[in-house]
Amino acid sequence: MSLKDKLVSSFLAFELDADINSSIHEIRSKSIKDFEKIGFPDRKHEDWKYTPIKKVLNEDLKIFSKRRHLLDFDKVKDFFISGIESYKIVFIDGMYDPFWSETTHDGVDICILSAILNKEKYSKLLDKYFNKLTNKSDSFSLLNTSFSKEGAYVHVPKNIELAKPIEIVHINTGSDNSLMLQPRNLIIVEKSSKVEIIESHYSIEKNGALTNSLTEIFVEENAFLDYYKVQNDNTSNSLIDNTCIHQEKNSEASCHTFSFGNNITRNNLSFYQNGKGINSILNGITILNEKQLTDHHTLVHHANPSCTSHQDYKGIFIGDSVGVFNGQVIVDKIAQQINAFQQNNNIIIGDKAAVNTKPQLEIFADDVKCSHGCTIGQLDKSALFYLQTRGIPKKEAKALLTYAFANNVLESVKIKPLKTKIKKIIAGKLGVNLGFEL
Amino acid sequence: MAYTEEELKKELEQQEYQYGFTTDIDAETFPVGLNKEIVKKISAKKNEPSWMTEWRLSAFEAWEKMEEPEWPNVKYKKPDFQKISYYSAPKTDPKYESLDEVDPELLKTFDKLGISLEEQKKLAGVAVDIVMDSVSVATTFKDTLAEKGIIFCSISEAIQNHPELVKKYLGTVIPKKDNYYAALNSAVFSDGSFCYIPKGVKCPMELSTYFRINQAGTGQFERTLVIADKGSYVSYLEGCTAPSRDENQLHAAVVELVALDDAEIKYSTVQNWYPGNKQGKGGVYNFVTKRGLCHTNSKISWTQVETGSAVTWKYPSCILKGDNSIGEFYSIAVTNNYQQADTGTKMIHLGKNTKSTIISKGISAGKSQNSYRGLVRIGNNAENARNFSQCDSLLMGNSCGAHTFPYIEAKNKTAQIEHEATTSKIGEDQIFYCNQRGIDTEKAIALIVNGFSKEVLNKLPMEFAVEAQKLLEISLEGSVG
Q: Does a structural domain hold residue A298?
């Protein structure tokens, strides 16, 4: 039985287990029907041209995770950001782990989606927000919607500035069979509020999971959101991440994606600007080696005048790794005075590494400033030589230059301990220990 | 089918003089429709050897199985291939020895278009091979070229007189099954130009062809093959005009360039086919496949100025197969009213130390849509490949669109690729500055557009550059609100 058939036939059992009377029952059923119609994409599909997703759609993937795993502190401590107070929502093999989590209902809701799905008092809220932003023609979004049951739920009412960031941590233990996980997050930042969120993915053992994650984010008037993604699973895992951000006027939202792990990582990140004076920021650092592949698909839809967007993606490709970038900017006819900038820089280090990039502008308004730049190159040989003449070994010199290359994006990280953590991961990825703080 | 040639003729007669100006030349036209018989008939009509007929038939078989591509960013009513007549030749056979023998009606049409043959003949250094409704009717300066051993003739003549060259190179750069329109062209191409530059010869003049679409309801399927042998050089110009016509006309040409070791080909195009009227009615469909193959140390340079056609779909490309080869692409695409253009280039780097440059300027006005679609691919073995791309778009008015779809694929760690694109409009301050100095707005726009396109215009041969500048002005006339 193919994975598709398996998923479709498991749906009934899933819903019975979850709650067939849930207010989202109809949305789920419709989604699975639509998914059944279109199935999984293959490489003939323009959006999947460079990403052989078939490779990880294995029929041995388990759809239900039965056993709850408990982890000791020494196992999980590395996955949290040290030296920082934070709210935590922890999922182990897709299941909520209350032991390591720190949630709250005090003025704000920082908890899990399953807690609100079946409650009557939340049904209006779900009607307003749930599944409003997803791409209804994308197989993985449909699939996630049909199996949506667990994930993070964050609701910050108006005029609140959260004192602590929120950590959403996904840990794959990999101790049982390979799993297919479908985390579903809903994040609502109301008028004039401010939130910082860090979503991270880690794994322990070799049995990999395929995580098909979907996050819907609403950033309302004057609100501010900083969203960090740290994707650092081991290479037996794969991740498909759909994140849709809807912004209202004068809001600012940024999404910083740090991709180091996984066999295949696919990020679909889309911004929709529904008002004037909106700013959207998309950043990313990708460092891969061996046979890893990371695919960033970004979309910024400028539907209203006087907005800006800024994209900056850096990629370093070692070994046989492959980088894909597809950045789409759409400027509607009425969206005048738009300033959209997009940049994608890549360094190929590996002999068999490859980069496929497609920056894409679709512009229907005339009074706009839109530009994109894209480069593929190598580390500067003379700079490397200079560092070596100063007694820095080649490997470290290369790492230094790599840091410099990625610095623009690293500097956009406003939480200092997180920045330190990312630098550490990068050092590990490059196999160096610089022995000092950069 | 009970539909006969007679009936068709009647139909055509009734249509005549209804739109624009149509030259009243007695033309021989095949019945509409496309099938094996028609392909065989075209081949027989042109007295082609059997290998050519076979070649056409196999292309036709492939075409039948193919589907019309949907991916270009253009919307149009798909042509009905069974409603097109695939062959039309002026009946005034045989070929002319001099201009005096050419049908005066024909010459008048050229006069109307401002490309009088006399003038062209006088323009020193330009040999003109005029293609009117698919069959070449006059070739000049042949003797000068023959002295150098250069072959410059229609492709049907080449099939008759130089079958070994045609057989060796035809379809090697663009296989007959390459794409939908290339396959169609391979099956039914009526005529086109053939050019061969022998080893070490530098072609002393710019070779030039003018294309025209004249007969109502006939698609134009041109086939061009240019071969530059080792160490040779040629500059080839192609210019196109068409009289106004209310019905969409299909043009699906194929151009193949082969640059052997150390050779250089410069191919320039000015295209100003009828773009349809202000309401977007009529106009030519231009679906062209152009590709060049570069051997070691060779260079192919495409320069194009596109102002015409209702729908354009065209990607002149270079396959940089040989080491140290160079590919260049310079393009200006102007769209106005309801025109749609999806153009760009492909640079396929296969050899070591290969270089490519892409400069593309898109100008959209009125309600038009202008897309750049390009591919830069660096293969596994293409050490030290270098590419620079720049795509700039200029928007005039808020009802048009400019789009860029650049694909960049690098599979080698020594590759260096830079790509940049910008989209902007003509600044009000720029126009104000010109107004201040007594330049009216229309002229100011022309001035600014000219500056915007300068990088590409500079690459055109002299006479073409002047013509192209004028064209830009005409195309954008009245686009300032």
A: no
Helix axes B428-436, B441-457, angle to 10 degrees: 110
Q: Is A434 in CB contact (< 8 Å) with chain B?
A: no
Residue A301 counted as domain residue: no
If we measure between CA atoms, which residue out of A415, A386, A389 comes closest to residue A401?
Answer: A386
Give the gap in angstroms from C-alpha A386 to the nearest C-alpha of chain B. 20
Q: Do A361 and B395 touch (CB under 8 A)?
A: no
Residue of A nearest to B411 (CA): A354
Is position A79 within any domain?
A: yes
Judge if A384 and A269 occupy the same domain. no
For A159-175, how does the pLDDT look when each residue is reduced to its tens digit (9 = 90+)?
A: 999 999 999 999 988 87
A250 and A392 share one domain: no
Same domain, yes or no, for A269 and A386? no
What is each CA distance from A191 to A157, A166, A212, B19, B210, in whole angstroms? 7, 19, 30, 62, 65
| Shortest alpha-carbon distance between residue B362 and chain A (Å) | 12
As for the ipTM of the complex, it is 0.81
Q: Are residues A259 and A393 in the same domain?
A: no
Q: Which two tokens stand for residue B225?
A: 């093959």
B409/A374 Cβ within 8 A = no
Question: Is residue A44 domain-shared with residue A193, that is, in the same domain?
Answer: yes
* pLDDT confidence band for B178 (50 / 70 / 90): confident
- In angstroms, the separation between the Cα of residue A65 and the nearest Cα of chain B is 39
Where is the domain boundary, A236, A252, A274?
Answer: A274
pLDDT band at B25 (very low <50, low <70, confident <90, very high): low
**Residue A202 resides in a domain:** yes
| pTM as predicted | 0.82
Mean pLDDT for the stretch of residues B90-100: 47
Q: Is A70 exposed, middle or buried (0-12, 13-18, 19+ CB in 10 A)?
A: exposed
Please say whether the beta carbons of A10 and A63 come within 8 A. yes
> Three-state SS for A244?
strand
Q: Does A43 touch chain B (CB under 8 A)?
A: no
User: For residue range A116-146, what is the model confidence (pLDDT) as tens digits?
Assistant: 888 888 888 888 999 999 998 999 999 999 9
Are B418 and A336 an interchain contact pair (Cβ–Cβ within 8 Å)? Answer: no
Residue of A nearest to B71 (CA): A46
Among A248, A274, A300, where does a domain finish? A274
Question: Could you give phi then psi for residue B57, rounded to 5 degrees?
Answer: -65, -40
Residues B79-100: what's their mean pLDDT? 60
B396 min Cα distance to partner chain A (Å) = 6
Domain that residue A19 falls in? 3-274
* A359–B406 CB contact, under 8 Å: yes
Q: Cβ–Cβ of B410/A355 closer than 8 Å?
A: yes
Quote the number of domains for chain A: 2
